[in-house]
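Hi again,

Forgot to attach this to my earlier email, sorry! This is the prediction with NAP bound. I've pasted everything inline since the attachment limit keeps bouncing my files.
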Amino acid sequence: MRPITIITGGSRGIGAATARWLARAGHDLVLGYRGNRDGAEQVAAEATAHGGRCLPVRADVGQESDVDRLFAAAAELGTITGLVNNAGLTAHIADLADTPVAAIRQVIDVNFLGTVLCARRAAQVMSTRRGGAGGAIVNISSSAATLGSPHEYVHYAGAKAAVDAFTVGLAKELAEDGVRVNAVAPGLVRTDIHAGAGVPERIETAVSRVPVGRAGEPEEIAPAIGWLLGPEATYTSGAVLRVAGGL
Ligand code: NAP
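Structure tokens for the complex follow:
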């Protein structure tokens, strides 16, 4: 039976690279996106070229009704066995005192609340004690969770630290339900997230902090996510796997 996996934020960046990796590994996919339908359809076309199914679905992870729609679309494909909680944004780069409240709310809503809402639905449908087939959840955290990100986005770091704590707790809560829960914490990765926060040159300005001396590519994060979801990681739960070039 092919695994059926939902990836939130699958239209570009780390989510898109993960979709390509999982499609090659034989997953059928549902790709959530917020607004970039063309990107999601392009990624879906690349994924289906590997022989599986891939359905793009517009779904804001901070909205319960959108999360329900995302899971309903996945259920049409069959039994859901995987969730990658990847949708995220940094939104604004500044000291906290200069950060608008709306940006803070958005960062917490998408990075933390969105992860919680999607994991909640996944727990409902994947738990073997509730009639599901079991499975795995991978939450995308950040090296920011332990570094704190001063002068950039301390509230984003806090939201990602919350994702780490949530991962540890939910892994324990779902251990007897046949559902493993882990996180991947990327460091500085070359995606549009930095331009989305208004600082497209952030890779160049932040790279000197990275011990290996360069930014990572989304394709270097995806295999860690794929491994945690897959059959070789059956004894791994509650882990936060740092993929950050030594950061
Ligand atoms: P990205 O290239 O900016 O892509 C973000 C993705 O999230 C897009 O697919 C976007 O959809 C989606 N998204 C944004 N807001 C959403 C919402 N409210 N509901 C649903 N989807 C939403 O970002 P990325 O760098 O790949 O980041 C992926 C994850 O890695 C995030 O959780 C991020 O915090 C984490 N991370 C990234 C880095 C880095 O340096 N890049 C480092 C550490 C952690 P649309 O395309 O439709 O807008």
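DSSP finds nine helices and seven strands in the chain. Residues 8-15, 32-36, 39, 60-62, 86-89, 110-111, 140, 142, 186, 188-189, 191-193, 196 surround NAP (CB under 6 Å).

That should be everything now.

G.
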